[in-house]
Amino acid sequence: MVDATKTKKVVSSSNTRKKTVSRSRYSKAEIYEIFATFEKDNPEPEGELNHSNEFTLLVAVVLSAQATDAGVNKATKHLFQIADTPEKMVALGEDKIREEIRTIGLYKNKAKNTFLLSQMLIEHHGGQVPQTREELEALPGVGRKTANVVLNIAFGQPTIAVDTHLFRIANRIGLAPGKTPLDVEKKLEKVIPPEFMQHAHHWLILHGRYICKARKPACDRCIIYDLCKSKEKILKGTN
Ligand code: SF4
C-alpha cells in the first residue's frame, strides 16, 4: 500500500527542487548591475552578420543556422552585391543561390528557403520584410530565434533571441535557468530590466562568443567576474 504521507513529501520535495533549479540565482539589483556593466563596456552592441537592409539581414540570419557569422559573411559578400532585394533573389534563381552559398553548411536547403522566402515576400508582403513574429515565422527557414533577431535588429523590438550562447550562459551562471530555448527566453524577459532589453541579447551573445565560451570560459577577462555565481567560474590567475 502506498504511504500517502511519504508520497506527498516526495512530490513536495521534488516541486521545491524544481523551483530552486528554475529561479534566477541573482537578485534584481545584481541583475541590474550585470547589464549596467555590459552597457558601460559596450553601449551600442551590434550583431556580426553583414547586411545592407532588412531583407539581407533576414537572409543572413536564415543562412546562419548551424554556421558561423564569419562563414556566412564570406558567402554573402558577393551574393548581396548581386541580390539585395527579394525580386533580385528570385531572378537569380535557386541554382545560382546554391552556388553562391555552397561554402555554408546545409547550403542546399538554405538556398531553397532563401528562394522561397523571397517569393513569399513578393507575393504576400509587397517585397517588404514583415514586422510581426507570426508573419516572419510563416516564411520558409524562419523559426522563433530568426524572427527575434530580425525584430530586434531591423525593427528595434526588445526581443531576446536565444541561441546556443545565450542558452549556455543563462544556465551556466544561473541568470535564467531553463530546459529549452523558449523557457530561457521567457525567463530572461522576466528578469532583465526593461531599459536593457533592447541590447541584452547582443551583450549576451558577444559575451558567450568571446568570453564565457563553451569549453573554457575566459573568466580572467570577464567584466562580470565579481557578480558571477557560476560553479564553473575559474579563479583569476588559474586560467
Ligand atoms: S566569470 Fe567565467 S563563468 Fe562567470 S560569466 Fe564570466 S566567463 Fe562566464
From TrEMBL:
NCBIfam families the UniProt entry points to: nth
Task: Tell me if Endoplasmic reticulum is a UniProt keyword of this record.
Answer: no
Cross-referenced SMART domains? ENDO3c, FES
State the Gene3D superfamilies in the record. Answer: Helix-hairpin-Helix base-excision DNA repair enzymes (C-terminal) (1.10.1670.10), Hypothetical protein, domain 2 (1.10.340.30)
Chain sites annotated for binding [4Fe-4S] cluster: 212, 219, 222, 228
Q: Which UniProt keywords apply?
A: 4Fe-4S, DNA damage, DNA repair, DNA-binding, Glycosidase, Hydrolase, Iron, Iron-sulfur, Lyase, Metal-binding
Q: Which Pfam families match?
A: EndIII_4Fe-2S (PF10576), HHH (PF00633), HhH-GPD (PF00730)
Tell me its family: Belongs to the Nth/MutY family.
Record-given protein name: Endonuclease III
Q: What class of enzyme is it?
A: lyase
Provide the cofactor list for this protein: [4Fe-4S] cluster
UniProt EC number: 4.2.99.18
Q: Which reaction does it catalyse?
A: 2'-deoxyribonucleotide-(2'-deoxyribose 5'-phosphate)-2'-deoxyribonucleotide-DNA = a 3'-end 2'-deoxyribonucleotide-(2,3-dehydro-2,3-deoxyribose 5'-phosphate)-DNA + a 5'-end 5'-phospho-2'-deoxyribonucleoside-DNA + H(+)
Q: What does this protein do?
A: DNA repair enzyme that has both DNA N-glycosylase activity and AP-lyase activity. The DNA N-glycosylase activity releases various damaged pyrimidines from DNA by cleaving the N-glycosidic bond, leaving an AP (apurinic/apyrimidinic) site. The AP-lyase activity cleaves the phosphodiester bond 3' to the AP site by a beta-elimination, leaving a 3'-terminal unsaturated sugar and a product with a terminal 5'-phosphate.
Residue intervals of the HhH-GPD domain: 63-210
Top-level taxon in the UniProt lineage: Bacteria
SUPFAM superfamilies assigned to the protein according to its UniProt record, in alphabetical order? DNA-glycosylase
The record's remark on the cofactor is: Binds 1 [4Fe-4S] cluster.
